[in-house]
Amino acid sequence: MTIMKKLHILYTFAAAVFLLAACDTDVEHDIAQVDAPIFVSATPETGSTVKTGNVTVTLQYDKNIYFASEDASQISISDNGTVVSADVIGVSNTLTIVANCPNRGATYTLTIPAGLVTGPNQMPAPEVSLTLSTTGLNTTPVNSLTAEAQQVYDFLVENFETRTLSATMAVDGVSGQTGSWNTADAEQVYQWTGQYPAMNCFDYLHLAASPSSWMDYSDITPVKEWWDNGGIVLAMWHWNVPKTEGDTDTNNYTSTLSETAFNIDNAFTEGTWEYRTVQADLEKMAGYLKLLHDANIPVIWRPLHEAAGGWFWWGKNADSFKKLWIQMFDYFKAQGLNNLIWVWTSETGDADWYPGDAYVDIIGRDLYGNDAADCASQYQTLINDFGNKMITLSECGYSEYTDSTVGLLSEQWNAGARWLWFMPWYDSDNSTTPHADQTWWEDAMSQDYVIKRGEFR
Predict the structure, then answer these.
(1) How far apart are CA 170 and CA 217, in angstroms?
(2) How many Å apart are CA 156 and CA 418, to the nearest integer?
(3) What is the rounded CA–CA span in Å between residue 272 and residue 277?
(4) Which uninterrupted H or E stretch holds 275?
(5) Which residues carry out catalysis?
(6) For the segment 35-61, what is each residue's pLDDT rounded down to a tens digit?
């Protein structure tokens, strides 16, 4: 072996000894320990008041956290509440919980047990508990009402979710009667069941043609007779407008968005034909409603219905719709029409279209062809979204798309759909698929929780 090889072996041995010394088990290495996550804040804050239904609660910690979504069932909530979901999205310091708080005027305690949330190195976070209170049912109308209208409003509040009011729709163009201004369907229900529905809905569908030889809304006789006989008055407005600027043939007027050049976005700009149309129609409608006001007749008022559906001209977009609703509300209020109880019709999932709690007394839903279980599901969805308001089945009946009619009223009620009232749409004389036939009405009117005409006063 050469001297050079011996030296190389010596150097290699020395290097190995050095490395062994560096890795000696007696040498200590400190690994920084990360503290457990500390809860910082919640939105909404503990002690807050929220609406009934699904409430989104976000909990923030002082560092990124980890949470297994399948552990959501271990989060507890009192008073029959349920945890719908709980997630940490991506790398985040926020736990998002969706909790269902079903009862009005209740206090819920939401508790995340210790260790369910962890931080780096799996350090467990302490228990977090917070309380939320749900609002009660609105029992004050959005407008100061006449004595008679307040009486109707109080009756609705008193009976909501314990009883339901029956209602019929005026028939348009029925033989021998004035179009959209009659009680023909109510008479049919009486013939079938021996009882009149509690409510009848009149439609100002032909406003543009009134007054005329065939339609004159200044003759309030049918409405007054209904009220005087112990019935409650509903009213709606299929708001027909010209299809084009300058069109004065009221037979051509329409409420369908696809059939008119009328643009709601222009209705708030002076000088446009849309602006002139809206102003003139609001003035005309206020005049007709004033006749009912002066006769001490309260009106449950449902204008601009089904907006989010997009088929009416007032359903072009949410912003202009809400602006028009509030304009109507403010204008009618300024005209002294304090006999109106306001109903907004939801399509569900359309909270962006909601004019606001200050402008709506009742939330309506129109359902066609839905079975009882789906009706109950729709009802619960509205309770989740608008739990502080009364909820009603503002229209119902047969659907040509599903070839089925709405579930029997008794089945809906038993499934949990506790509508404030129910109103099947009217049937034409030659209808082969009625919205509500004799069997449907016999079922409804035989229930002891269904209110008929004469039980209000």
Answers:
(1) 14
(2) 13
(3) 9
(4) helix 273-294
(5) 306, 395
(6) 899 999 999 999 999 988 889 999 999
